[in-house]
Design goal:
- With about 400 residues, this protein is α+β, with helices and mostly antiparallel strands.
- Helix content is about 50%, strand content about 10%.
- The protein has helices at about 25-30, 45-50, 100-105, 135-145, 160-170, 175-190, 195-210, 215-225, 225-230, 235-250, 255-260, 265-275, 280-295, 305-315, 320-330, 340-355, 355-365, 370-390; strands spanning about 20, 40-45, 55, 65, 75, 80, 90-95, 115, 145, 175.
- Strand 4 (about 65) and strand 5 form a beta hairpin.
- The longest helix is centred in the C-terminal third of the chain and has 18 residues, at about 280-295.
- The radius of gyration is 27 Å and the shape is elongated.
- The termini are far apart.
């Protein structure tokens, strides 16, 4: 795989400054996957030297710079030391004396702790001997294993979520037993309790959007993290199958989250959403699914008036896209009759949308009707339209 040319200023120079391609870009390149954003690590440089070369400082917690032409991120080599509980309790030490091996040692997984000198980044083939790989990440890529780098892994509870995310992304990879044991110990020590809701949601949402999100649930339940973060959500076979079916259909995030929370009462879904501070779209669809999912499945036996009432409760007339997502969630969860019921409801919605409500309102007003009576006239017209185009099966 050939990447965009690397600016010549990134190579080694007489000051001892040297730049490496690191992280996900290199990992994905070695796996033969498409590479989007590239991250670079700079060893042997000070912030002053970076600024003098035209790099733009953007890091708040540690020195990160944008290249003056490519705008790619360049971080100075650093070490981290645990200084307080939680994932923010770190003291960062960035210095020209920090070596490439020391920087790689602070990373989460061995497959992410590999580096390639920037002057070799444009080579058509990456030679194994050219890589800086002190923790045998190439071996774990070959063997398809997610393994922590060092015991420092336990100092950051976000890494538990990241392992679960990578398990969903690289679903052929297994989690090393010693890494799973380490994560269980972190959960028992209360480390995950320090995670803020926004970060939990961010990683959970990313995992749901991967190719096999069920792996994320399995890993989080296996180490006990799910039981602490979201005890309402189990790892039942039906739930795992539903979220994977949503992924197979390339469903959007609200549908996948609705499948994750399916089977919970609306009050429990609301509690999950509030605890995660879930965005409005995901929260609204999950709540609607909890409240109306079974009614939708049983809608094949409803008459036209009940169908219109159901569409109104779901706000389908104003938000047809969300209603379509609601029906998709039902199908992904394997609810009985979800597919034929969804087809009939979409036919009914099309019939309702075709009703000329403005003309009906004008006629009612001309006849002296006001307020609720105009609404009733519109509803009668919608029921009549559904009776014509979406009859009982």
């Amino acid at each position: 795989m050939r990447l965009a040319p690397t600016p010549p200023t990134l190579g080694p120079d007489d000051t001892g400054m040297r730049t490496y391609l690191v992280g996900g870009a290199l990992r994905d390149r070695l796996l033969g996957l498409p590479v989007a954003d590239r991250d670079w690590l700079v060893v042997g440089a000070t912030p002053e030297q970076m600024v003098a070369r035209g790099y733009i400082p953007v890091g708040r917690d540690f020195p990160v710079f944008l290249h003056p032409r490519t705008r790619e991120e360049h971080a100075l080599a650093r070490t981290e030391r645990k200084s307080a509980p939680g994932y923010r309790g770190f003291t960062i030490h960035a210095s020209p004396e920090v070596t490439i091996e020391e920087d790689l040692a602070r990373r989460d997984l061995t497959i992410n702790a590999i580096a390639l000198p920037s002057e070799l980044a444009d080579a058509a083939v990456t030679e194994a001997s050219a890589l800086v790989d002190p923790f045998h990440g190439q071996r774990d890529l070959r063997d398809k294993v997610l393994r922590h780098v060092t015991g420092a892994f336990r100092e950051d509870p976000v890494r538990i979520l990241r392992v679960a995310l990578f398990a969903a992304r690289f679903h052929e990879f297994s989690v090393a037993p010693e890494t799973m044991d380490l994560m269980r110990g972190m959960v028992e020590a209360g480390e995950v309790d320090a995670l803020v809701p926004e970060r939990v949601w961010q990683e959970l949402a990313r995992g749901l959007m991967e190719a096999m999100p069920s792996r994320m649930l399995v890993v989080l339940h296996g180490c006990g993290a799910m039981q602490r973060l979201l005890p309402e959500i189990d790892a039942s076979a039906d739930r795992l199958r539903s979220i994977d079916e949503a992924a197979r259909r390339q469903a959007p995030l609200p549908v996948r989250f609705g499948c994750l929370t399916w089977g919970l009462p609306a009050s429990a879904v609301l509690g999950v959403c509030e605890r995660l501070r879930a965005p409005t779209d995901e929260r609204d669809l999950a709540l609607l699914f909890a409240r109306e999912g079974q009614a939708i499945a049983g809608s094949l036996t409803l008459d036209a008036a009940a169908i219109v009432a159901l569409l109104e409760r779901c706000d389908a007339i104003r938000k047809p896209e969300r209603f379509a997502q609601l029906l998709q969630a039902g199908e992904c969860c394997g609810i009985d009759d979800a597919a034929p019921a969804g087809k009939r409801l979409l036919d009914a919605l099309s019939a309702v949308q075709a009703v000329a409500t403005e003309a009906i309102a004008r006629e009612a007003q001309a006849a002296g009707e006001t307020g609720p009576r105009i609404g009733e006239a519109i509803r009668r017209a919608r029921i009549a339209a559904v009776a014509r185009f979406a009859p009982l099966t």
